[in-house]
Design goal:
Radius of gyration: 24 Å
Shape: globular
Distance between the termini: 42 Å
Strand content: under 5%
Number of strands: 0
Length: 271
């Protein structure tokens, strides 16, 4: 009995210690963001205000926010459109070498983006795509292995008998895909869109190399540039900028949460 109580106390202390470690960075972030006189210390602010957020949204920050939204939403949407166009035939047609192709996609998924940066850069340079659209295209290419594999798995779960019945009733292929397959796969599409959005939102290297001009940089590059700007670190500005930077990804998650919960369960079932 005494041994059980001792174990419970040790477990409680260990959990409390882990909670403190997990909460401390977020506490520091919020306390400094809402403190107009932030010094970078973990302390209760003497006054609370939104001055740091106003400063974070002034200057180039607003433009960088719009650039991030354009790159992230454009990449997610293009990845889903291209992924659906390629994943549906892979799911329904018995193409020779299909399994080898899918395993190749798995291997490509493991490649780091920095490993294919040089060929992507020169291809974009030849095609005149060293701009934001080039960033969207490059990120879509890097997303395609994951997008294809995931969407194919979700399309596999749609009963083909439904499509055959619709075909007998006179439905076209486009109607079958848009009226049956896509609505029944919206959880998978939501997961793919979310992962593509957050991946593009957090991307730093490709926008830095492809965009090349200050006005085209997203917030990820702006956050990097804000460190040590004007010879000093403004902790209030940086923490407010970080919260604004993280907010869209969190907001997209809550917007898609209902479909994504089903999608994550589907991913777990399919392995």
């Amino acid at each position: 009995m005494e041994s059980s109580e001792t174990t419970s106390r040790i477990t409680a202390i260990a959990l409390a210690f882990m909670a403190v470690i997990w909460v401390s960075p977020f506490s520091w972030l919020f306390l400094n963001a809402f403190n107009p006189l932030s010094t970078g210390q973990l302390e209760i602010p003497k006054s609370v205000g939104l001055d740091n957020f106003a400063m974070a949204m002034s200057g180039n920050a607003g433009k960088q926010f719009l650039n991030s939204m354009l790159i992230a939403a454009g990449t997610a949407t293009l990845s889903v459109v291209v992924g659906i166009s390629a994943a549906y035939p892979l799911s329904r047609l018995r193409i020779p070498g299909r399994n080898a192709f899918l395993w190749t996609l798995v291997l490509l998924r493991m490649l780091p983006s920095a490993g294919v940066l040089v060929p992507l850069y020169f291809a974009a340079q030849r095609g005149g795509l060293l701009n934001q659209f080039g960033v969207i295209v490059a990120l879509t290419i890097l997303n395609l292995p994951f997008t294809l594999l995931l969407l194919k798995n979700f399309f596999d779960t749609v009963p083909i008998e439904l499509e055959e019945a619709a075909y007998v009733e006179g439905a076209t292929l486009l109607q079958i895909v848009t009226k049956i397959v896509l609505p029944m796969s919206k959880a998978g599409i939501a997961v793919v869109w979310f992962y593509s959005f957050t991946g593009a939102w957090n991307e730093f290297l490709l926008p830095l190399i492809f965009a090349r001009v200050q006005d085209a940089f997203p917030m990820s590059v702006g956050l990097y540039a804000a460190f040590g700007q004007q010879g000093a670190i403004n902790y209030g500005f940086l923490t407010a900028f970080s919260i604004i930077y993280a907010a869209p990804a969190v907001g997209v998650y809550f917007l898609l949460r209902r479909n994504m919960n089903t999608g994550f369960a589907g991913v777990g079932v399919k392995g």
